[in-house]
Specification:
This protein is of the alpha+beta class and 257 residues long. The protein is 22% helix and 30% strand. The protein folds into two domains: 197 residues, Bira Bifunctional Protein, Domain 2 (BirA Bifunctional Protein, domain 2); 46 residues, SH3 type barrels, CATH 2.30.30.100.
Length: 257
């Protein structure tokens, strides 16, 4: 039997369920009832899992690491909380690289890529006094079960079977997240003073690329992604006119040969 509680080490309270609607929705409800900081919920199956922009996300039982964490970062002012998804993304990248040897990158805002294909997605939700951040990492999904044609899993990307232990991977993610959160909170959420923005940019698969940003209102903007601002917004140079966007989907465009 998998010892999920051990994955939390000394600082995380990990609960495992076989099945739920959404780990994020469950933790949002628990947060309202006073659940403590560093609470983690992991599930083998999510029947109503959601991605960004309300997209559904469902994986066959036990093939993905599906979890949410509840945080109460008292030292970080509300206007700086938007970086939390990226911080979890960095923790996931490092955990994947350590466990599998595969290089992982970040696509704005919060997707984790291996070889240009999405292996993990992140959804952050802000409550009245707590943050809930959920992630789904494709671990052993077969090609037929992938949620989208540009996705992959650790197994499909070439990870050895022994490196695809979901509980061990969760433990690595949470351990990495501990260190990143400590730096973020010590800097009162200042993403530059903590050094986290520089680390994010070093992992960015988006900055420097030609992209199309699909905005929530249906508009699109195409140009070169030049930066991720301290606010977390992507900066796109569209024909010499830098524009910043805090929400939207980014499509990486192929460079012409």
């Amino acid at each position: 039997m998998t010892d999920w509680a051990a994955a939390g080490g000394a600082t995380w309270i990990v609960t495992h369920v076989d099945e739920t609607g959404s780990t994020n929705a469950d933790l949002v409800a628990q947060a309202a009832l006073g659940a403590p900081d560093h609470t983690v919920l992991v599930a083998d199956v999510q029947r109503a899992g959601r991605g960004r922009l309300g997209r559904s996300w469902v994986a066959p039982p036990g093939t993905a690491l599906l979890f949410s964490v509840l945080l109460r970062p008292r030292a970080v002012p509300p206007q700086r909380l938007g970086w939390i998804g990226a911080i979890l993304g960095m923790a996931i990248c490092t955990a994947i690289e350590t466990a599998t040897g595969l290089k992982a990158d970040l696509k704005w805002p919060n997707d984790v890529l291996i070889g240009g294909r999405k292996v993990a997605g992140i959804l952050a939700e802000l409550g009245s006094d707590a943050l809930v951040i959920g992630a789904g990492i494709n671990v052993t999904l077969d090609a037929a079960d992938l949620p989208r044609p540009d996705a992959t899993s650790l197994q499909l990307a070439g990870a050895a079977a022994y490196s695809c232990d979901r509980a061990a991977l969760l433990g690595a993610v949470l351990g990495n997240l501990d260190g990143l959160l400590a730096r973020w909170e010590a800097a009162e959420g200042d993403i530059d003073r903590s050094g986290l923005r520089a680390e994010y940019l070093a992992r960015s698969a988006t900055v420097g690329r030609r992209v199309t940003v699909h905005l929530p209102d249906g508009r699109t903007v195409t140009g070169i992604a030049t930066d991720i601002a301290t606010t977390g917004a992507i900066v796109v140079d569209a024909d010499g006119r830098p524009q910043s966007f805090t929400a939207g989907d980014v499509q990486h465009l192929r460079t012409s040969s």
